[in-house]
Amino acid sequence: MEYLKQRIRDVYDFPKKGIVFKDLTTLFKDPRGLHIIGWDLSQLYRDKGVTKVVGIESRGFIGGSILAFELGAGFVPVRKPGKLPADTIQASYDKEYGKDVIEIHRDAITPDDIVVLHDDVLATGGTMAAAYELVKSMNPKKIYINFIIELSALNGRAVLPADAEVTSLITY
Ligand code: PRP
Ligand code: MG
């Protein structure tokens, strides 16, 4: 885990003054770092029968794809509005200023699926809570929730459902 932590870059005052941004690009560009992420994420779900990994646009696509590949599962994107070509369902959630919307294809998940919902960072939890609502509405057998980084000071876990086992590789 130290290897991963050492490769995450702190960027001060991004996206605005006072915020210390945890930049994962410096970890993803490191070949061994990327390999370890794929391995460590997949170890959490080896024996769980996962059939689909749902990744949240855009930074959740990177770890989500690697995890799906490692597990031999399929990959499903949750996207910002207007990007998915076929019939979608939507959920809105509160951002700092106003509301945001995410979408998933209406036929992306079926009741026989076991799903891992993945994103890069858990901050306030608003994005993941909305994504969970979308996936839940398609009635899969089980939904797990997973992040690479959890910012525990923001207490995002509080808005995530109690029955989804929430795991994070790295907690700050
Ligand atoms: C960031 C991050 C998570 C989300 C976490 O994404 O990648 O998806 O915010 O915040 P929350 O827990 O407070 O909802 P962002 O919306 O900046 O978009 P991006 O992934 O496309 O960069
Ligand atoms: Mg994101």
Automatic annotation (TrEMBL):
Domain Phosphoribosyltransferase, first and last residues per copy: 34-145
Pathway(s) served: Purine metabolism; AMP biosynthesis via salvage pathway; AMP from adenine: step 1/1
GO molecular-function annotation terms? adenine binding; adenine phosphoribosyltransferase activity; AMP binding
Q: Which domain of life is it from?
A: Bacteria
Against Pfam families, the record matches this protein to: Pribosyltran
Question: Where located?
Answer: Cytoplasm
The protein's predominant localisation is: cytoplasm
The EC designation for this entry is: 2.4.2.7
Q: Which InterPro entries match?
A: Ade_phspho_trans, PRTase-like, PRTase_dom, UPRTase/APRTase
On assembly, the entry states: Homodimer.
HAMAP family reported in the protein's UniProt record: Aden_phosphoribosyltr
User: Which PANTHER family does this one have?
Assistant: ADENINE PHOSPHORIBOSYLTRANSFERASE
Family affiliation: Belongs to the purine/pyrimidine phosphoribosyltransferase family.
- Function description: Catalyzes a salvage reaction resulting in the formation of AMP, that is energically less costly than de novo synthesis.
List the protein's name. Adenine phosphoribosyltransferase
- Taxonomic lineage per UniProt? Bacteria, Pseudomonadati, Bacteroidota, Bacteroidia, Bacteroidales
